[in-house]
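PROTEIN DATA CARD
Card holder: Sodium/potassium-transporting ATPase subunit beta-1-interacting protein
Chain length: 203
Origin: Cricetulus griseus
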Amino acid sequence: MFQLSALERQIFDFLGFQWAPILGNFLHIIVVILGLFGTIQYRPRYIMVYTVWSALWVTWNVFIICFYLEVGGLSKDTDLMTFNISVHRSWWREHGPGCVRRVLPPSAHGMMDDYTYVSVTGCVVDFQYLEVIHSAVQILLSLVGFVYACYVINISMEEEDTFDFIGGLDVHSHCQDHVELKPVKPVEISNDIDSETRLLDLS
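Structure generated from the sequence above:
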């Protein structure tokens, strides 16, 4: 349930036109809903899908952390999160806590919507650290959900084994108690009854 906090992250990624995180958040929300349905309706296969996705989701968030901290040659100033189709950056870059956004006059060779001509000052926390905090929270929630999903799958498998064992005994006992019924030919007793009545009349 707490992993639906990705909805909040989805909103800010939409505002920042971060298409790669938007796609990841959308898939994550769908799988979380599927996992909740599997837990409520007792569908272990759905929970297993959620378990596999949790591992992928942790990997994705680790990549985002490395991206914004510029680990391993990655750079937060690239257009990787927008699939190289726009120059937008994280929404928190200009709207973080305490940030003051001021648009500078464009030069003859610039564009009005280019981030080069936007001055942001006074931010309490830099935008990359806000993105890292969001990813770290998602990793923590995913690990908790992964452990709980494994626990539910283990319990469901034990219950299925117990059910199969009891069902096997019931089938065996049913086979032992089953009696095959065969049709029986009717006994012709009409002649015997007639002879007895005649003897009584003679007497």
